[in-house]
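User: What would this chain look like folded?
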Amino acid sequence: MKHRETEILVVGGGPAGLSAAIEAADRGAGVLLVDEQKDPGGQLVKQIHKFFGSGRHGAGTRGIDLATQLASKAQKLGVQILQGMSAVGVFEDSVIFSDRDGSLFRFRASRGIIATGASEKTAAFPGWTLPGVITAGAAQTFVNLHRVVVGQKVLVIGSGNVGLIVAYQLLQAGSEVAGIVEMRPEIGGWGVHASKVRRLGVPILTGMSVKEVRGRDCVEEIVLCTVDQDGTPSGEERIITVDTVCLAVGLSPRIEFPQWLGCRMGFSALLGGYLPLHNSVMETAVPGWFVAGDAAGVEEASTAIEEGRLAGIAAATSLGYGKGTTCEEEIREIRESLNELRLGPFGRERKRAKERVVSEYETG
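Assistant: Here's the prediction, encoded as structure tokens.
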């Protein structure tokens, strides 16, 4: 077993992990970032669309390019990035990782940052195990990374930002999108994404849910039913001929690693489910371990970047790096940025949810 020591260990190489590593290294700390994928960037490597918003969050930049930019900046600052390695165990003084050949590595660190991201939720209904029922993440992997069309006629379940964006990317890949189905009476994502797919002729069917998927050896058709506001089927059905059903029904924080550590956990439906409680600078109940990004509650990539920056600064500062008025001003600016990102009808709810997470941490 190979051994290595570092000042700060970052687990996860998505936008949160890379941003945390950049901030910590920029202040002089030694940083080792370990990620299970072959390329850094996390979900950014699947994002071929341009982000919008502010320049500090990659506005006008495609996700895949933003991943390259963050990784390049981290490496220039001296961050050691190890890809293709998964955490398999946690001890009091170290973390054990395994590479794809099965070799084991023991890493010791004075501080740690958990940026393990999120995993996709799914939905169970009659026929959900038929070939042709896939998740949105799988669709993006096929289409955006491997240039493989997932189906000729696809129905997307879920109208959040992921569902709306994936529908557009499926159209770009050459699939026909028969519609986007949403159980709630209104769409769950941003209007700009919904308008884009609507202009291309994709209907968004609100107030409907999946009753069953039919097919002999694979998906051949889907049966939808109208639902009341409480989700109860109200009787009307619609049958649509499709060969693929794409599930975009949400994400959950990946909590295996913080559970191994013994982090105190909380629950927030708005943030994806169970998550590690943390304070205002992203430190968990395990001293010296911080959390950021979707692992701390599912939000947007821009929010993950800011939380990663906050965790990186806090971890480095706790080791004696970058202390002073300038550091305090940066932390204040990041918090202001997070508040701005959590504006609007969806953001305000998440802001309150995050405040409850911090409050539960402080009162527990």
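Residues 52 and 59 are 4 Å apart (CA to CA). If you want, I can go into more detail on any region.
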